[in-house]
Amino acid sequence: MSRYSNEAPSDASMLVHFRERISADLVNKVNQEMVKKMLETASSISTEKKHQNKEKKIVRQKIVGN
Known about the structure:
By secondary structure, the protein is mainly alpha-helical. The radius of gyration is 24 Å and the shape is elongated. Helix content is 79%, strand content 0%. The chain has 2 helices and no strands.
């Protein structure tokens, strides 16, 4: 879609079509995978920030020490 439109992107009956064919088990599995990926990403970002803070502290110590 290249521009805004007030029209629905698909017919509402298509949503019913998919909803009737997707089991609660599949939805739960997808949700679990999404949460797992989000937690992995958050953990890696946290680890990266800790590493950056440690590097900044070392640089500050070198500057103050000289």
